[in-house]
Amino acid sequence: MHYWLLFLALLGFTPPAAQAADLMAFWDQPRHGGNSFNRLPPDQAYFDALRAYGATWVRVSYDKWRPADRDFLLGNADGYHGLPASDLATLRSVLDRAHRAGLKVVIAPLSLPGMRWSQNNKGTFDDRLWQDKTYWAQAAAFWRDVARALKDHPAVAAYNLVNEPAPEKCSDLPEHASPERMQRWYAREQGGARDLPALYRQLTAAIREEDAVTPIMVDSGWYAAADAFTYWPAPLPDDRVLYSVHMYEPYAATSAPNMARRQPLAYPGAVPFAGQLQQWDGQRVAQYLQAPLNWADTMNVPRSRLVVGEFGCMRRLSGCRQYLEDVLGVLDQHRLHWAFYSFREDSWDGMDYELGTAKVPWRYWQAIDQGLADPLPRQATPAFEPIRKRLATDQ
């Protein structure tokens, strides 16, 4: 018996192998949480409130925070030259607050070199990353630096390499194409700059040069569509990878543009999807979400490695509560990890279910214009109940 190992354990030392097992073991049982896409770095009360509901993790995006240069943490998406020290310090302080609350964090950038998030790019989709592999090397350098800086932070549960990539968008592959068409498209694009699995392999290799143990989360293509893993011929060659999709389908009904219609599309109801008018209800939601499950089963990827990293609907849509119930029913059935969109977002109220179904008062928008903290109180509402009751069971 190695008594020195017992002695070190009593002192609180954890051998590297055990650290690795613990990081991945967090994801061995279903984990439920929320998304934080706030314009201001969240304070301690924010994370404490999410944890009080029963959440175990939070997916944090920082791209709306005030940057030292053009783009937060990247410096400038036009050319990466290192992590700005003040941005990194801000991110560390946020991770510290999440850790004090008892939450694990998945770091989820919305931008990479050559792929500036459209809302920070005057509303224009940035396709450079998917045309020029020079930006792949810069993205690898960025993630290598992030891993070096944050690999020992106790809050970090995964690196989500990029939020909602869409290398297919400026090509000839439509959203929700048939599996056969997706696979033909990928066979043509494989090895080129639109090869998403190849980019992920390069970024993963860069991270592993600095950090051998932290799990890596990868979104599917076409904005993390649930059917967009279909064209992947194999999983990534790393056994610490989580595969993530987002669920807003049928987008024509769940999204903000629908609420601007004179007569919004209803859920359940007939909704345009993939060029057709389809009936969407709980059965259709389950059918659609079967796509990543089928892919994982075919590839021998355990269900514990599948994540629904975002899902939601406009809180003022009359059928939103039923939609959340239908989506969560499927996720519960298959024991998948999930994070709802979004928790107490201070720049957009559309999917902030604690606000109920009423319009927000003018002071909410005034605070945004003035760069002040969100002034609105939050509380559990009927709109939030499908999420709240499931988070409560995790406590």
TrEMBL record:
Residues 1-20 form the signal peptide. Residues 40-345 form the Glycoside hydrolase family domain. InterPro entries: GH, Glyco_hydro_5, Glycosyl_hydrolase_5. GO terms for molecular function: hydrolase activity. Keywords: Carbohydrate metabolism, Cellulose degradation, Glycosidase, Hydrolase, Polysaccharide degradation, Signal. Pfam families: Cellulase (PF00150). PANTHER family: ENDOGLUCANASE, PUTATIVE (AFU_ORTHOLOGUE AFUA_5G01830)-RELATED, GLUCAN ENDO-1,6-BETA-GLUCOSIDASE B. Belongs to the glycosyl hydrolase 5 (cellulase A) family. This is Glycosyl hydrolase. It comes from Pseudomonas parafulva.
